[in-house]
Structure formats: structure tokens, C-alpha cells
């Protein structure tokens, strides 16, 4: 396998990227982490390695304000992540070996790849959202997030949680996003994997998204949590089985 780490420029900021290419590979999966996450998290590297085992190259990228990419966490928004994703897809299009491009993302990264697949429907061969946080726009419209309540018509300057702070623009942006439109625009094969004991994104969110896709498949992982701390092997197995059966 050939591995390299580099920055992908995106409108003056640098996105930290890692490309792993198995010998002779001609297909590429872009893999995106979640909210507060990064490309070296155990569940991200495990799924990425699963694709590599099947002969797919992977391009893992830290999004704006996360991992070793530029930007402050406080200032990240789904619009910034969406333009990051479009830039990463364009970068992947420029890789001569990559004849097919797939998208995989976890949680907020799962939501992101759902939105990106709707925007680049003609290009994305398959879509693998893992525990996708597809409810973020709706809960932000309702004024709930991360266990906080806020007035959705008078968005606060910032909200604090754990040791982090998130600016109000995150909430303003999220309120505008219509996930259903993105789902309805994508006709390709979709695998959604979701632990049925997810403490962060209700399993019903994954079930509803899988049902709405024209070509959606749902794989529930009994007893597993948001980051697959209990049954990561089953997640890896589900992704491998679905990829092998469909492509
Ligand atoms: C939330 C629940 C889940 C939320 C984000 C998430 C920003 C995403 C989690 C993840 O990406 O792992 O209320 O608000």
C-alpha cells in the first residue's frame, strides 16, 4: 500500500489529508469524521482499513476547525464543511487512478456526505453514512442541540459544552439545511450503519434516512453506541459485506 499525508488547499485554508492506495487500486473512498472528531479516531481508521482491505483507496480528510486542518472549531459551520467536501471531491476527481469515487462519513460527517452526494449525484458511485447525524438541521430549527436549549429565533452568540465553544453561526447555518432534499436527489446505492444504543444520534434517524433513500440499505448493530466502542468488528463486517455485494 502507498500512503501519503499532505494538505489540500481550500480557499486559503489547508485541509489535512491522508491518502492510502492499495497496490493496483482504481477506486477511491473519501472518509470523513464527525463533530469534534478527526481522521485518526479508531472507528474512522478501522472503516478506512476495511475499504483498503477490499482494494479501495481511501482519502481521509480533517474538516474545517477539526484535527490538523486550519480553522477554529468555534467557527466551523456545515456550509464550511460542505465547501470543504466539494473541494475534496474535486481533488479526488484529479487523481488519475480513481475511476470511481465513493463517500463515507461518520455522524456529522455522515450528514455531510449525504448533502455532498446530493450535490454531486452524477459522480458519487456509492454512499456510506455511519450513524448519520441527519437530525442536526431539524433540532437546530427547534432550538435544541447537544443537550442545550436555545431560542431558535434569537440565536445566542455562542453555546458552550464540555471544554468547547460553538459560535451561533453554526446554528444559523444548520437551520437552513434541508436534508430530505439531498436524500431525494441521490439515486445511487446507500448503506447506513447505526448502533441501536446510540446515545448521541437516535437510531430512528438512521432508520428514517435509509427508508427515504431510493436505493437505501440499513444495517443495525445491536447494542452498539455512537462510535462503535462495543462492536466495531460488526461495523467493519457490515461495510465489507455490502461493498462486496454491490460493487
Ligand atoms: C447533536 C448531536 C450529535 C449535535 C451533533 C451531533 C451539533 C453530532 C455528533 C457527531 O458528529 O459525532 O446535538 O449538535
Identify the CATH class: Alpha Beta
Class based on secondary structure composition and strand pairing: alpha/beta
Low-pLDDT runs:
none
Q: What amount of the residues lies in strands?
A: 25-35%
CATH superfamily: Alpha/Beta hydrolase fold, catalytic domain
The largest beta-sheet arranges its strands as: 1-2-4-3-5-6-11-12
Overall pLDDT level: 98
The CATH topology annotation reads as Rossmann fold
Distance between the termini: 21 Å
Task: Summarize the structure in words.
45% of the residues are buried. Strand 5, helix 3 and strand 6 form a beta-alpha-beta unit. The protein has a single domain (2-134, 180-246), classed as 3-Layer(aba) Sandwich (Rossmann fold), CATH 3.40.50. The longest helix has 16 residues, at 78-93. The chain contains 8 helices and 12 strands. The protein is α/β, with parallel strands linked by helices. The model has no long low-confidence stretch (mean pLDDT 98). 3-(4-hydroxy-3-methoxyphenyl)-2-propenoic acid (FER) is lined by residues 34-35, 107-108, 133, 136, 139, 145-146, 200-201. 3-(4-hydroxy-3-methoxyphenyl)-2-propenoic acid is lined by residues 34-35, 107-108, 133, 136, 139, 145-146, 200-201.
Amino acid at each position: 500500500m502507498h500512503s501519503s499525508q499532505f494538505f489540500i488547499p481550500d480557499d486559503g485554508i489547508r485541509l489535512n489529508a491522508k491518502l492510502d492506495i492499495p497496490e493496483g487500486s482504481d477506486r477511491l473512498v473519501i472518509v470523513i469524521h464527525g463533530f469534534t472528531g478527526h481522521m485518526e479516531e479508531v472507528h474512522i481508521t478501522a472503516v478506512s482499513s476495511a475499504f483498503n482491505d477490499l482494494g479501495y483507496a481511501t482519502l481521509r480528510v480533517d474538516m474545517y476547525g477539526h484535527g490538523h486542518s486550519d480553522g477554529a472549531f468555534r467557527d466551523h459551520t456545515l456550509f464550511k464543511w460542505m465547501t470543504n467536501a466539494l473541494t475534496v471531491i474535486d481533488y479526488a476527481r484529479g487523481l488519475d487512478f480513481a475511476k470511481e469515487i465513493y463517500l463515507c462519513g461518520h455522524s456529522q460527517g455522515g450528514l455531510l456526505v449525504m448533502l455532498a452526494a446530493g450535490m454531486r449525484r452524477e459522480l458519487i458511485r456509492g454512499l456510506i453514512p455511519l450513524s448519520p447525524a441527519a437530525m442536526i438541521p431539524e433540532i437546530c430549527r427547534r432550538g435544541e442541540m447537544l443537550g442545550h436549549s436555545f431560542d431558535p429565533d434569537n440565536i445566542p452568540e455562542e453555546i458552550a459544552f464540555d471544554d468547547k465553544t460553538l459560535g451561533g453561526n453554526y446554528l444559523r447555518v444548520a437551520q437552513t439545511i434541508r436534508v430530505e432534499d439531498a436524500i431525494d436527489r441521490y439515486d445511487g446505492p446507500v448503506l447506513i450503519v447505526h448502533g441501536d444504543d446510540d446515545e448521541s444520534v437516535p437510531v430512528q434517524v438512521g432508520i428514517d434516512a435509509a427508508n427515504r433513500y431510493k436505493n437505501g440499505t440499513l444495517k443495525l448493530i445491536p447494542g452498539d453506541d455512537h462510535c462503535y466502542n462495543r462492536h466495531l468488528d460488526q461495523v467493519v463486517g457490515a461495510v465489507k459485506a455490502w461493498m462486496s455485494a454491490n460493487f
